[in-house]
Amino acid sequence: MRRKRRKKKNLRIILTALLVAAFVAALGAVLIWKVFVVKDVSVKGNEIYTDKQIEDWVLDEKYSWNSLYVYFENKLNKTEEIPFVDSLQIRLKSPQKLEITVVEKGILGYLYIPSLGKNAYFDKDGFVVELSSQVIDGVTKINGLSVESAELYKKLSIGDNSKLLRTLLNVTQLLKKYDRVPEMIYIKDGNVYLIYGQIQVNLGGGTDLNEKILRMDQILPQLDGMSGTLHVETWSENNTDIYFRNGELMEIPNDVQTVPEASDGSADGSQ
Description:
Elements: H1 2-34, E1 40-44, H2 51-58, H3 67-76, E2 85-94, E3 97-104, E4 109-113, E5 118-122, E6 128-132, E7 140-143, H4 162-177, E8 184-188, E9 191-196, E10 199-204, H5 209-219, E11 228-231, E12 243-246
Parallel strand pairs: 1-3, 4-7, 7-8, 10-11
Antiparallel strand pairs: 2-3, 4-5, 5-6, 8-9, 9-10, 11-12
């Protein structure tokens, strides 16, 4: 009899524990369902995409209205690859507030690859970080180089002229440092030309680049509203001549590095 009573007592304890656990689980489910609702999303670190575009990318699933679901989904599963974005980090600031931190790929410039029909975007080391038909505002176009092909996450190949690639990378990094990113960099006969609307700058070859760009940075504000070419190509420690030729503008061909319009069906970009 005593053994039966003990058995019944243990059963009651187990049933009570199960009921309590079920109640806690149900309460937790209700809290998750009712409390963890996305009401506010903040985005930082993004330059290429708008806050709304990033938000729409992240909150694109059936249960994305639930902040806890979004948080763990990002932690446990790799976010779908977004062009020009290296990674996304999501923080739960409160049950109703999410913070999305965007780490974009470090892009210095791009050039068009005719064989791929896409632009190859490269980083400071010359590695291709994105292949896309998109043209991103504020990213410098490289014109005048012939590149047969490009492969994602591999270094740009411009034939045997590795020196020209080093010069190009040095120029793009220095321009970013001085916040003088041009619309276009044009390579012709081994010389580097920077295009700022109606102002063209001839940097010459790859020598004394930092000093040339430093002086260019100081002169450009004085040329506002003018049209012509600033010549700094001959500058050196022994020859400090810099001059501006008003009205002198080199014709830059609209070459194969321009992405063709889908409507006209042409691929040569000629005018």
